[in-house]
Write a structure and sequence with these properties.
Pfam family, one: peroxidase
CATH architecture of the largest domain: Orthogonal Bundle
Family: Belongs to the peroxidase family. Ascorbate peroxidase subfamily. Belongs to the peroxidase family. Classical plant (class III) peroxidase subfamily.
Keywords: Calcium, Disulfide bond, Glycoprotein, Heme, Hydrogen peroxide, Iron, Metal-binding, Oxidoreductase, Peroxidase, Secreted, Signal
Number of helices: 15
CATH class of the largest domain: Mainly Alpha
Number of strands: 2
Helix content: 40-55%
Catalytic activity: 2 a phenolic donor + H2O2 = 2 a phenolic radical donor + 2 H2O
Number of domains: 2
Cofactor: heme b; Ca(2+)
Oligomer: single chain
Strand order of the largest sheet: 1-2
Bound molecules: protoporphyrin IX containing FE, 2-acetamido-2-deoxy-beta-D-glucopyranose
Length: 328
C-alpha cells in the first residue's frame, strides 16, 4: 500500500529546480503563448488596469520562494497563503484573469502549463500590450505545493521604503541597482491607493510634515485626491500616463512627481539617481534594462518539489490521498 502511494507521489511531483528555456511548450502545447496573449488582450479590453495588476503578480510571486505560483494559492484551514500578506491584502487584484488563462489552457492542453509560467507569460504580455517591449520568456517552472504568508510579510517591501533599503533587498535576489531602477519602471502602468501615500502627504517619517521632495503643485493634486482622513481606497495613477508603458515614470521622478515614496526615493538618493536620469532621457535604455530585469527576476526558483496545478488556486489532490480515502 505505502509503495503504491510513493509511486504516485513520485510521478506527480518533480523534485529539482527545472532548467528554464524559451519555447518550453512548443511540443506539449504549441498554442500556449498565443492563448495567454489572447486572454490578456480580452482582459485589457474589459478593464485596462487589469494587465498592470497581473504584471505586478510576477514580482510578488517571484520574490517569495521563487516564481512558483505560490502567490495564487487560496488560504486553506491548514495554510495561510500569501494573498492576505501585508503587501497583498486589499491590493493585489485580477487573480480572475489568471484563472481565465488557466481555464483556456486546461481546455487546450490539460495538465501541461504551470501557473507559475502563466504569470511570467502574462506579465510579458501586459507590458507588450501597453506599448512596452516584447520579449521571449523562459518557461518550464513548476507550481509550489504550499505558500507562506510569513515569508511574504518578511520580504515584500513597503511603499515607505527608501532606495538604500531597496538596493539591499534586491541584492539578496542577485538583482543589481540598475535592475532595481529598471524594474521599478513597471510603475509606468497601473494605480495605487491613497493608503500607500497618506503618510508622505501628511506625516513623512513621523515629522508631522509632508515629504519635502514632492513638487508643490503635484502635492496639491495628491492632497485633493487623498485628503487627510479621507477614503484610503481611492486610487491614482502611478505615473502621468498609467495605461501606457513608457519612460514617463522616470520623467515624473526627475520632476518630483513620483507617486510612491519608494518611487521618488530613487531620484533623491545618489546611488540610483543616475539610472533614473538615464531612463528618463532614453526610453530604449529603459526597455532593454527592464527586459533584462524581468528575465533575471523570472529565473528565481526555490528548488523545492512542485507540480503543474490544474487550478491555480489549489494544490492538486494527490493520488495517494484518494487511495487513503478509498481504503478507509
Ligand atoms: C521596488 C520596490 C517596489 C515597491 C516598494 C512597490 C510597491 C507598490 C505599491 C505600494 C503599489 C500600490 C499598492 C496599493 O496601493 O494597493 C504598487 C503597485 C504596482 N506595482 Fe509595485 N512595487 C515595487 C516594485 C515593483 C515591481 C518590481 C513590479 C513588477 C515588475 C511592480 C509592479 C507594480 C504594478 C504594475 C503596480 C500597479 C498594480 C495595479 O494597478 O493594480 N512593482 N507597487
Ligand atoms: C532607509 O531606510 C532604512 C530602513 O527603514 C533606515 O534604517 C535608514 O536609516 C534609511 N536611510 C536613510 C538615509 O534615510
Ligand atoms: C545569487 O547568486 C549566488 C552566486 O551565484 C547564488 O549562490 C545564490 O543562490 C543566488 N541567490 C539567489 C536568490 O538566486
Ligand atoms: C506622525 O507619526 C508619528 C510617528 O509615527 C506619530 O507619533 C504622530 O502622532 C503622527 N502625527 C500625526 C499628526 O498623525
Ligand atoms: C539609448 O540606449 C540604447 C541602449 O538601449 C543605446 O544603444 C543608445 O545609444 C542610447 N541613446 C542615446 C542617445 O544615448
Amino acid at each position: 500500500m505505502s509503495s503504491t502511494i510513493l509511486l504516485f507521489l513520485s510521478l506527480a511531483v518533480s523534485a529539482v529546480a527545472s532548467p528554464l528555456r524559451p519555447k518550453f511548450y512548443s511540443e506539449s502545447c504549441p498554442q500556449a503563448e498565443q492563448i495567454v496573449r489572447d486572454v490578456m488582450k480580452k482582459a485589457m479590453e474589459r478593464e485596462t488596469r487589469s494587465v498592470a495588476s497581473v504584471m505586478r503578480l510576477q514580482f510578488h510571486d517571484c520574490f517569495v520562494n521563487g516564481c512558483d505560483g505560490s502567490l495564487l494559492l487560496d488560504d486553506t484551514p491548514n495554510m495561510l497563503g500569501e494573498k492576505l500578506a501585508l503587501s497583498n491584502i486589499d491590493s493585489l487584484r485580477s487573480y480572475e484573469v489568471v484563472d481565465e488563462i488557466k481555464e483556456a489552457l486546461e481546455k487546450a492542453c490539460p495538465g501541461v502549463v504551470s501557473c507559475a509560467d502563466i504569470v511570467v507569460m502574462a506579465s510579458r504580455d501586459a507590458v507588450a500590450l501597453s506599448g512596452g517591449p516584447n520579449w521571449e520568456v523562459k518557461l518550464g517552472r513548476v507550481d509550489s505545493l504550499t505558500a507562506s504568508q510569513e515569508a511574504s510579510n518578511k520580504i515584500m517591501p513597503s511603499p515607505r521604503s527608501n532606495a538604500t533599503y531597496l538596493i539591499d533587498l534586491f541584492k539578496r535576489f542577485n538583482l543589481s541597482v540598475k535592475d532595481l531602477v529598471a524594474l521599478s519602471g513597471s510603475h509606468s502602468i497601473g494605480k495605487a491607493r491613497c493608503f500607500s501615500i497618506v503618510f508622505r502627504l501628511y506625516n513623512q517619517s513621523g515629522t508631522g510634515r509632508p515629504d519635502p521632495t514632492i513638487e508643490p503643485s503635484f502635492r496639491e493634486k495628491l492632497d485633493k485626491l487623498c485628503p487627510r482622513g479621507g477614503d484610503e481606497s481611492v486610487v491614482g495613477g502611478l505615473d502621468a500616463t498609467p495605461v501606457i508603458f513608457d519612460n514617463q515614470y522616470f520623467k515624473d521622478l526627475v520632476k518630483g512627481r513620483g507617486f510612491l515614496n519608494s518611487d521618488q526615493t530613487l531620484f533623491t538618493f545618489p546611488e540610483t539617481r543616475e539610472y533614473v536620469k538615464m531612463f528618463s532621457l532614453n526610453q530604449s535604455a529603459f526597455f532593454d534594462a527592464f527586459v533584462e530585469g524581468m528575465i533575471k527576476m523570472g529565473d528565481l526558483q526555490s528548488g523545492r518539489p512542485g507540480e503543474v496545478r490544474r487550478n491555480c488556486r489549489v494544490v492538486n489532490k494527490r493520488p495517494g490521498e484518494a487511495l487513503i480515502d478509498v481504503d478507509r
